[in-house]
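Q: We require from you a single protein entry containing the residue sequence and its fold in token form, and nothing else.
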Amino acid sequence: MVSLIRNVSFDCADPYALAVFWAEVIGHPVHPECAPGDEEVVIEPPGAPRLYFQEVPESKHGKNRVHVCLEPGDRDRDAEVDRLLALGASVQGDHRTPDGAGWVVLQDPAGNEFCVTRSAAERHAQ
């Protein structure tokens, strides 16, 4: 037997607000039974682990040891980074190489790091 990933969990001060951000990132809505003020909020995309947001009293300290890596499905990396910045993400680090490879490290509105890699089309073009 093997284990399956049930959740990717996010600790935060406002679970609903952060879930709304991530719902826009992945294009899947917050669970309809969740509401502002809930201590736990989920997004359940079909065929993928759910995203779980839980309220915690402490703020984030230091670098995440585990993080989400995103691959754009219908645009290139730079266009996806621009879209995520418009949603409220911020750039933490840009690790692009001269040949166009590499990734961009972003932070969500709660300060959780995540990466955006090149799309499959970009990788296959080289």
